[in-house]
Every structure is written in structure tokens, then in C-alpha cells.
């Protein structure tokens, strides 16, 4: 593969995201790391994704930015949803935010949920706590994402919290998840473990960065048996799966 990616990055909109995770800082760090493709995936909202896109464009960076979010299902499983356009992501984001438990954020406990522009200009804060569960079941997520032209990806399936294995006890292969995210695939798949997760799926390894120093230098996209050689070919295949 001729490109590198990180498709799970949080901005300062996520209450657990560092205040330094602003649109220009994210775009600049991605460029310094040599990333060609990133996705902004805040908890249950995509309100800062457009600002990261605009920041990269303003700075003239050769960086493609996807809009997405990390949805917390009713089972408290994290699922990354990516969308082909900002408009689609914003519409999906409105539906997800409406499905959140109506609990107000306490910034002194959970952190601020800052909406900022491409030059770090403050645009407001989200009042309801974004890290809560939504009323959307994991069974709903594949169809939900497809309804907006996107794709749903079970997040960090190998972690001990907020993953399909931690919260459900198994990988729900009866659902249409053609892609899965594995935080440490070299350990998770050691000695042929977890064949039910592979099963022809594209396996992504992302940073789940909440701080600038968590962002990682991207490796080539691990497409089984070869695959797309450019970002555009990869996106066409990803959203076509």
C-alpha cells in the first residue's frame, strides 16, 4: 500500500479528549506523522469533524479527513461509524445525539466538550454528556450507518472495556460488520486466535488518540490479499463493503 491512515481520532469535543486536540493541531500532527488519511471520531457527535477538514485545507496539507463518530450502543459497546461526506455525517450525528441519555455534562468531572473552528475559535460546548450510552442497539448500527452511506466498525474489539468481547462476550458475526478495529492485532491474532473475527474482514489498526502524543505514525493499510493502492480507491472499497 502506498498510503497510511488513522481512522479513530478524538478531538477536544470528546470530554476525555485533551484540550490540545484542536482542529489545526490534529491536522498538523497527522501531517508530521506522514498520514494520508484520518478520521475524526468523537464520542456520539461529529461537530468538530468539519473544522478539522477546513483546517487541513487552509494549511494546504495533503491530508484527507473523514467525518465520523464513535457511537456508544445501548449495550455500551463502542462502534466507529465513518461517512463518505460531511453532510451525511452531520445528519447521522444529529440522530445519534438525539438518542443519547439526557444527562448534563459536568465539565469539572468529565471534561469540557468544546466545539471549535478551524483556527481554534470557540463556537460553544455540548451540554449533554457525550460519553453516555445511546438508545441504539448494536444490532441497529450496521443499518444505521448504511442509511447515511457510511459503515459501522466495531471498535477496539480486543480491549477489556466497551468492546464486543468485553460487553457481549463474543463477536456478533450474525451482523453485517465487514470491517473490525483491533487495537493490538499482533497480540489478538497470535497463534491463529480469534478466526471468527477475521473471516474475510478488513482489520484496521487505529490509535484511538485522545492526546496529540497518542497519534501514531501510520503503517500501510492491511488489506487481505493486496488491494487498493490509493486513498480514493481505499475509500471506494471501504464504503462499498
Task: Write up this protein.
It is built from nine helices and nine strands. It has helices at 23-32, 49-58, 86-98, 107-110, 141-147, 164-167, 185-188, 195-198, 231-240, and strands spanning 5-9, 37-43, 64-72, 78-83, 114-116, 122-125, 151-154, 179-181, 202-204. It has a five-stranded mixed β-sheet, sandwiched between helices. Strand 2 (37-43), helix 2 and strand 3 (64-72) form a beta-alpha-beta unit. Helix 1 crosses helix 2. It is globular, with a radius of gyration of 17 Å. The protein starts with a strand and ends with a helix.
Largest sheet: 5 strands, mixed
Q: Rounded to an integer, what's the Rg over CA atoms?
A: 17 Å
What is the percent of helical residues?
Answer: 25-40%
List unreliable stretches of 5+ residues: none
Descriptive key words:
9 strands, two-stranded antiparallel sheet, 18% strand, 5-stranded mixed β-sheet, 241 residues, single chain, alpha/beta
Amino acid at each position: 500500500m502506498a498510503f497510511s491512515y488513522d481512522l479513530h481520532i478524538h478531538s477536544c469535543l470528546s470530554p476525555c479528549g485533551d484540550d490540545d486536540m484542536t482542529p489545526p493541531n490534529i491536522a498538523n500532527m497527522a501531517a508530521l506523522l506522514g498520514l494520508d488519511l484520518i478520521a475524526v471520531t468523537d464520542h456520539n457527535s461529529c461537530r468538530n469533524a468539519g473544522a478539522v477538514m477546513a483546517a487541513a485545507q487552509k494549511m494546504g496539507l495533503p491530508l484527507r479527513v473523514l467525518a465520523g463518530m464513535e457511537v456508544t450502543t445501548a449495550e455500551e459497546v463502542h462502534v466507529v461509524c465513518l461517512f463518505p461526506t460531511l453532510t451525511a455525517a452531520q445528519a447521522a450525528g444529529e440522530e445519534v445525539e438525539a438518542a443519547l441519555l439526557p444527562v448534563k455534562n459536568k465539565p469539572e468531572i468529565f471534561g469540557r466538550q468544546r466545539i471549535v473552528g478551524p483556527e481554534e475559535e470557540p463556537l460553544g460546548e455540548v451540554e449533554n454528556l457525550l460519553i453516555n450510552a445511546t438508545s441504539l442497539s448494536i444490532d441497529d448500527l450496521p443499518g444505521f450507518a448504511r442509511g447515511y452511506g457510511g459503515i459501522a466498525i466495531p471498535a477496539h474489539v480486543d480491549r477489556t472495556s466497551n468492546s464486543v468481547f468485553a460487553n457481549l462476550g463474543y463477536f456478533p458475526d450474525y451482523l453485517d460488520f465487514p470491517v473490525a478495529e483491533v487495537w493490538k492485532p499482533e497480540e489478538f491474532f497470535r497463534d491463529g486466535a480469534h478466526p471468527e473475527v477475521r473471516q474475510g474482514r478488513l482489520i484496521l489498526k487505529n490509535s484511538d488518540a485522545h492526546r496529540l502524543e497518542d497519534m501514531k505514525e501510520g503503517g500501510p493499510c492491511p488489506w487481505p490479499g493486496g488491494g487498493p493502492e490509493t486513498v480514493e480507491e481505499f475509500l471506494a472499497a471501504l464504503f462499498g463493503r
